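ok so for the tutorial part 2 we go from a plain amino acid sequence to predicted structure tokens. step 1 is just haveing the sequence, like this:
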Amino acid sequence: MCNLYRMTRAADEVARLFGVEAPAPANAGGEVYPGYPGWVVAQGRMTSMAWGFPLVLKGAKGQPLKPKPVNNARTDKLASPFWRHAFEHGRCLIPVEAFAEAAGEKGAKTRTWFSVHDQPVFAVAGLWRNSAEFGPCYTMVMTEACIEIGDLHDRMPVILTPAESRRWVETTDREEALAFCRSWPHGLAVAHTQEPWTASRAS
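step 2 — the prediction. this is what the tokens look like for a chain of 203 residues:
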């Protein structure tokens, strides 16, 4: 699953790449973690949303707890009640420069970054909805990992080509949308680093 990605380019530049109007200023971008704001292209515009659908939790005595952001939606779970409405009515695009997976031994894990060759910004398939807890929020759709991810994880974000991106948000055919949810077949650039996985999060 993906719990960290990067989007450092200016919002107006990203909006131009996706063919939408520049968004209003917002605290989004940089290194994005679950629960943090990120840029999302939905309904023909780019807006800032919280990364993760709220999962409402209760304590041992039934008291409400802080909602957990569920930031990944597995392809094989898209028909479940938690995701079904957003999959059918709230498909969106997530602009990404690179996403990270943890590598190494427990307690000493580092970040390995994955990006798309010759695409400084690429589109990841997403779902979005409004929520009482977080306001507008989004999640990444996950599928089986491609070979470049190797032993780091068995899943990866669904990466879309420009043509697939248009169809992902436009189609009303559920089976067509599901067909896009496959591992990326065109190769990924891999950057192994010594950055600690638990490096301080951006504010």
